[in-house]
Amino acid sequence: MLGSSGCAVSSLALGTMTFGTETDEGAAHAQLDRFVDDGGTLIDTADVYGAGASEEIIGRWLAKVPASVRDRVVLATKGRFSMSPEPNGAGLSRRHLSKALDASLARLQSDVVDLYQAHAWDPLTPIDETLRFYDDAVRAGKVRYVGFSNFTGWQIQKAVDECRRSGLAAPVTLQPQYNLLVREVEWEIVPACESTGLGVLPWSPLGGGWLTGKYRRDERPSGATRLGEHPDRGVEAYDRRQRVERTWAVIDCVQAIASRRGCSMAQVAIAWLAARPVVTSVILGARTLDQLKDNLGAIEVQLDAEESAELDRVSDPSAADYPYGGPGVEQRSRTLL
Ligand SMILES: NC(=O)c1ccc[n+]([C@@H]2O[C@H](COP(=O)([O-])OP(=O)(O)OC[C@H]3O[C@@H](n4cnc5c(N)ncnc54)[C@H](OP(=O)(O)O)[C@@H]3O)[C@@H](O)[C@H]2O)c1
Description:
Helices cover 45% and strands 11% of the residues. The longest helix has 17 residues, at 245-261. Helix 2 (53-64) packs across helix 4 (94-108), helix 9 crosses helix 10 and helix 9 runs antiparallel to helix 12. An eight-stranded parallel β-sheet has the order 7-6-5-4-3-2-1-8. The chain is of the alpha/beta class. It has a domain at 12-209 and 269-305: TIM Barrel (Alpha-Beta Barrel), CATH 3.20.20. NADP nicotinamide-adenine-dinucleotide phosphate binds at residues 15-18, 22, 44, 149-150, 175, 203-209, 212, 214, 225-226, 266, 283, 285-287, 291, 294-295.
C-alpha cells in the first residue's frame, strides 16, 4: 500500500530523474511502456527534474497511452526546489506551492496527482502554512495524498502532530535516500516513519550506480556514468565514498551474493531494500532500458536469511556512540539500566 493510505502500489516504482537529461524522450517512453507492461504502477517525478522536462515527457506519454493504462498509474510528483530565480520561486510557502502544483499538473497533462510530496523541509515557511495548502489542494481535488521527502525525524513528527491536531490531510509517505551505502536514516528517520505510520519510498536504491560495481577503488570515474560525466562534482562525490572502507566491503559482499545466485548486483541491492519492513516501494532509476530491465528483475530475487544477515552486517554504519549507539542505547533500555 502507499504508506498509511488505502491506495495499492507496485513494490518497485519508476523514478524519472534522468528523463530529459541522460534519457531522451523516446528512451523515456520505452522505459514507461516497459514498466507498466511488467505490472508497475507507481511513477515518481518532480518539477525540478530536467527543469520541468521529466514531467512534460511523462505528460505526453500519459496523453497517448490507452485509458486503461492511464487509470492504473499512480502518479507522484514534488514541489519545493527552485523553478525560477525569483524570491518566491522556491520553498514550501502557499505562494510558491500553489503555482508549482498548477504548473506540474499542466506539464503532466493531468487534473490530479496521486501523491504530492514536499521535496525537502523549508526552514523559512511555518509548516502549518504548508500543511494547510496541502489540505486545500486535497479538498480541491488536485492532490489525492500528501508525502514528504528528505525530512528528518523531528520534522516528520512535528508535521504529523500538526495534521492530527488540526484535522488536516496527513502525509502517508516519506521519500529519503536509503540503500546499502546509506543506512544512517535507520537511526532516527525510519523510526519516525514507523512511529507515525509513514511508508518509506527509498530513492537512489543503487547509491546512484555504485551498487552495480561500476566504480572502482583505484580508478577515477569516466565515460557515460553519473559521476564520470561531471568531472568536478563527480570526482568530489567519488572521493567522498571512495575513502570509506565500508563502501568496498559492501560492494564486495553484493558482488559475492550476485555471483553465487547468478543474478546482477543491482538485483541483490534492490531486493535487500525492498524486503525492509518499512519500505513501501523502491524507486528505481535507470539511464537506459536495459538498466531498467535488469532492475525490474529484482522482483524475482528473494534473499535468504543468511544473505540478508551478511548484507546487514557489512553495511551496518554502526553508530558507535551517543546518542544512537553505546550509552545512548543503554539509557533508553529498561533492561540494561
Ligand atoms: N527525493 C529526492 O530528493 C530524490 C533524489 C534523487 C532521486 N530521487 C528519485 O529516485 C529515483 C532513483 O534515484 P537514482 O536515479 O539516484 O537511483 P539509483 O538506482 O541509485 O541510480 C540510478 C543510476 O545508476 C545507474 N544504473 C541504474 N541501474 C543500473 C544497472 N542495472 N546497471 C548499471 N548501472 C545502472 C544509472 O546511472 P549511469 O548509467 O549514469 O551510471 C542510473 O541513472 C529518481 O529517478 C527519482 O525519481 C529522489
